[in-house]
Structures are given as C-alpha cells and as structure tokens.
Amino acid sequence: MQASVGVRVPTWFSRRRLLEEKLSDLHRCTNLDLVKQIHAQLLKSHLHHDLYVAPKLISAFSLSRSISYAVNVFNQVPHPNVHLYNSIIRAHAHNDSHPSLALATFFDMQRNGISPDNFTYPFLLKACNSYSSLHLVQMIHAHVEKFGFYGDIFVPNSLIDSYSRCGSAGLDGAVKLFLAMEERDVVTWNSMIGGLVKGGELDGASKLFGEMPDRDMVSWNTMLDGYAKAGKMDKAFELFDRMPERNIISWSTMQNKGYSILVFMAEPEPMLTAQATHIPTNAGRSIFVKGTFCKEKVLRDDSCLQALLHICILVVAGTNPASLFIKLETFT
User: Fold this and answer.
1) What does R_g of the chain's alpha carbons equal in angstroms?
2) From the DSSP assignment, how many helices (H) and strands (E) are in the chain?
3) How far apart are CA 272 and CA 270, in angstroms?
C-alpha cells in the first residue's frame, strides 16, 4: 500500500524567512494594501518596533503617500535612533508636509539626546521648499556651521539648493556659500547655476557656466531652459548647437519654446531641428524653417508628436486651416 505524502506545514522558520524576503524590498514598495498587510504581520510578530524594520515601514508608507501611517510607526518605537529620525524627517519632506513638522521632529531628536548626522540636514532642507522657508534655511545653515558638517559636500550642496528655492531673497546666501566652499563638485555648480536661472540672473548663470570645469547634461539643459524661458531663443539655439550630446529633455525644451523636430524617414536623410515661423507670401502664409542638421536619434513618442502639432497650430494661428497641408510621415 502506497503511503500518502502529506503537505508540509510551514514552520516558524519558513514563515520568518518569507517575511524577511518581503522586508528586503519593503522600503521601495508603493502598494499601500501590501504595505498594510506586511505591517499587520510585523505587529503580530512583535517586529514593528525593530530599529531595522521600522525605517523600512516608514519609507514604504511615505512612498504610498500615507504620512499618518508613517508617523504612527515612528511613535510605536520606544527608543528611536538617528536613522529612524532621519526616516521620518525624510517622509515629511517627501509628502510635502509643513516644514514645521520636520523641524519639530528635528528638535525632538535633540531633546532626546540623539545627535544629527550628515544625512539629517539634507532631509530636513528638502522640507524647506518655498519662498517663506528662508529663515528656516538660515537657521539650519547656522546649525551646520556650528557642528561642522561642511566636510560632507552633500550638506553644503543641499544648502545651496534650498537657498535657491527661496527665490531672489535666498540667492545672496547661496552665492556666499558657493564662494566660501573650498571643494565643489558638478552638483555644486549645477545647483548654483540653477538658482541663478530661477532668480532671473541669466548673465550670472552664463558667467558661471563658462567657468565650470566639468559640465554634465544637467548643466547644459539648465542653461538651455533658462534661455528658452526668458525668450532668448537665439542664445538657446546657439547653446543647443554647442551641446556635445542631447537627451529628450534638451529636445523637448526646444520644442516647447518654439522649435520643432522634423523627422524625415527616408534614409539617409538626417533629422532636422528647426525654428518654425510664418511669413507672408502672395498666396497667403507659408512656414519658414530655419535650423540645423544633426545625427542624433530622438525618442519618437506621443509627446514629441504632440509638441510638433502644437507648434504647427501656433505658427498658423489665424490662418484658414484648409490652406495648410501638413504631411506626417509614419512613425516607426
């Protein structure tokens, strides 16, 4: 007689292993229902106050835009450490909570004798994201100076970015910090150039861009966007021509500000970046195209096509649509 083979009942060890597998990617999970299920399992296993598990739960609830659940997880841990405090400060910043909530957590951290580290300040500064936050940024800056966190370049870079987000009033603080820095990386330069562009200081941004020792795609696109938004399309087009390489952001910036990408599918015809304007003729209006040839491949997606159609509509605004014939080649 053949013995029946029973189904193996999961042991405590196998259940724990399954839970640990879920925990490994928990901080990247954005499915709120799944996060709640894992939270319930952690409560049942008495692991919700574990200093390794709790930050992952806070991150998951933060990504799911459920800050109240994240705060609840934090409050259930009797003795939080600096990593846990950083996690909840970051959650407040990520969910656009009022800066006072992140700041209150920061003060509570110090009252409990937990010293901030080099991750605390960048997370805290992310919460200061409006023009009215200048005094908070200045206070955090003073704290950074007092405790000597300039050694980690990520901290002063975050300060420059935060000053720049406070509008023209914060630019002075950003510039002073930039000039005082003994060490700068490409992020430092990009943050300062981006701040000057946002503040309408295009001449200053252009000067700094020219002095920049190493430029990346962000550097070029920041200046390109600044010129385009200021309506200085001649300078934008000149810069666009000088770019050693371009990505979809570069092309979209030019499209959205009055330049179109005309794609000729017949090989070996290259793509043409062109400024489209209308000019009067005896027969009415026609499209005048001025541009430059290139060899790059551009992502041919719906956004590119919509931008091209939008530009065509703007160009012929006020013209009888029946008089305009636009041939669109098949996109492959």
Assistant:
1) 27
2) 16, 3
3) 6
CA angle 205, 207, 212 (to 5 degrees): 90
**Under 8 Å between Cβ of 86 and 56:** no
Q: How many CA atoms lie within 13 A of 303 on its CB side?
A: 10
Report the interhelical angle of 217-229 vs 233-242 (nearest 10°).
Answer: 160
Q: Crossing angle for the helix pair 248-256 and 217-229, nearest 10 degrees?
A: 0
Burial per residue of 36-54, b for 16 or more beta-carbon CB atoms within 10 angstroms, e otherwise: eebbebbeeeebbbeeebb
Residues 6+ apart with CB under 8 A from 200: 168, 230
AA identity, residue 137: V
CA dihedral 141, 142, 147, 150 (to 10 degrees): 40
* Alpha-carbon span 56 to 211, nearest angstrom: 42
| Dist. CA 197–CA 191, nearest whole Å | 10
Tell me the three state secondary structure of residue 271.
Answer: strand
Q: Cβ neighbours of residue 118 under 8 Å, at least 6 residues apart?
A: 149, 151, 152, 154, 155
Q: Which of these, 167, 165, 188, 166, lies nearest to 177 by C-alpha position?
A: 188
In whole angstroms, give the CA distance from residue 298 to residue 214. 25
For residue 294, the cross-strand partners are: 271
Give 285's pLDDT tier (boundaries 50, 70, 90). very low
pLDDT, tens only, 188-226: 999 999 999 998 899 999 999 999 999 999 999 999 999
When the pLDDT of each residue in the chain is averaged and rounded to a whole number, the result is 77
C-alpha–C-alpha distance, residues 141 and 162, integer Å = 10
The model's pLDDT over 26-83, given as tens digits with 9 standing for 90+, comes to 878 888 898 898 899 888 888 888 898 899 999 999 999 999 999 999 999 999 999 9
| Nearest alpha-carbon partner for 189 in 204, 209, 164, 163 | 209
The first and second tokens of residue 314, run together, are 């703007």
Q: Which residues contact 320 (CB under 8 A, 6 or more apart)?
A: 284
